[in-house]
Amino acid sequence: MTGFGAAAASAGGTSVAVEVRSVNNRFLKVQTRLPDGFAEIEPRIEAAVRKRLNRGAVSIGVRLETAGRAGRLTLAADVLDGYRADAETYALATGLAAPSNLSAYLRLPGVVREESAEPGDPAADAALLLRAAEEALDALNAFRDREGAAMAEELRGQIETLRTHLAQIETRAPGLAEEFRAKLHARISGLLAEAGAEMSPADLTREVIVYADKADVTEEIVRLRTHLTAFGAALSEDAPGRKLDFLTQEINREINTVGSKANDADLAGAVVGMKGAVEKLREILQNLE
């Protein structure tokens, strides 16, 4: 499930800002970008992610700033003198003028140095970073919860659409055998009348029974109702994504079976409507954990 969370914390002259983003993935993948010197807490951050999430590609970015610890800039006079002596020697040899402006030398490597910064407290900074990361993950979860609630409502709506079409099939299916018997009787009677022959009732009944057996969708209707009930119940579970994926596959399988048996325009229309709802289920489930 996609989501975003951010948090900031500061203490002892250190400020930390953490941003967490997640996108869809069948598995849980964590990518962390930490400042230099904090690699040892990466496993703890990943553990915090796994405690909260089960699926998704999670990217964590950290920005850390320290105040009052910057080192003092000093002039390396010996390096500057060396550069100037080399420049004057080169100028005498080539007839060119040596730089007379001090700023030209200050830009050269090593002329200006930064003294060692005031040492900080690595343990305190690591704890601060970890706290901000956990707060950002909690914000991410809150974002995902809101999005998940909206998706659950959409899923329930599609399940109701499936139930509506299933009710149409359940109402229509029992009359198909009788309609087939009447059409078959009328057609064969017409053909036999032309030939001056008759068809025995037993033969007609046998053909109707064969058709009714092939077109019977009672078992498919029962299984579809069971799957739809299970789907609705799973929406109240934690991290139901994989279970819903499986149920959607089973629902689609039963719909395809009904479609293969549907020798009727009304039944076929209901099947088309159900397949459209299943496609919407699949689209939504791509974002659900």
Q: Any key phrases for this structure?
A:
single chain; alpha+beta; Ribosomal Protein S5, domain 2; Four Helix Bundle (Hemerythrin (Met), subunit A); four-stranded mixed β-sheet; 62% helix
Write a structural description:
InterPro entries: YicC-like_C, YicC-like_N, YicC/YloC-like. Belongs to the YicC/YloC family. GO terms for molecular function: hydrolase activity; RNA endonuclease activity. The protein has 289 residues and is of the alpha+beta class. It has three domains: 88 residues, GHMP Kinase, N-terminal domain (Ribosomal Protein S5, domain 2); 42 residues, no CATH class; 141 residues, Four Helix Bundle (Hemerythrin (Met), subunit A). It is built from nine helices and six strands; from the N terminus they run βββαββααβαααααα. The strands form two sheets. The protein has a four-stranded mixed sheet with strand order 1-2-4-3. It has a two-stranded antiparallel ribbon with strand order 5-6. Helix 1 links the parallel strand 3 and strand 4. It is elongated.
Beta fraction of the residues?
5-15%
Biggest sheet features: 4 strands, mixed
Shape: elongated
Secondary structure: helix percent: 55-70%
Mean pLDDT: 84
The tally of structural domains comes to 3
Distance between the termini: 6 Å
Number of strands: 6
Radius of gyration: 37 Å
What's the CATH class of the largest domain, please? Mainly Alpha
Multimeric status of the protein: single chain
Lay out the secondary structure.
Layout: E1 3-11, E2 14-23, E3 28-33, H1 42-52, E4 56-66, E5 73-75, H2 77-94, H3 102-106, E6 112-114, H4 122-172, H5 176-195, H6 201-215, H7 218-234, H8 241-261, H9 265-285
Parallel strand pairs: 3-4
Antiparallel strand pairs: 1-2, 2-4, 5-6
Helix pairs in contact: 1-4, 4-7, 4-9, 5-6, 7-8, 8-9
Keywords: Endonuclease, Hydrolase, Nuclease
Domain Endoribonuclease YicC-like N-terminal: 1-152
Protein name: YicC-like family, N-terminal region
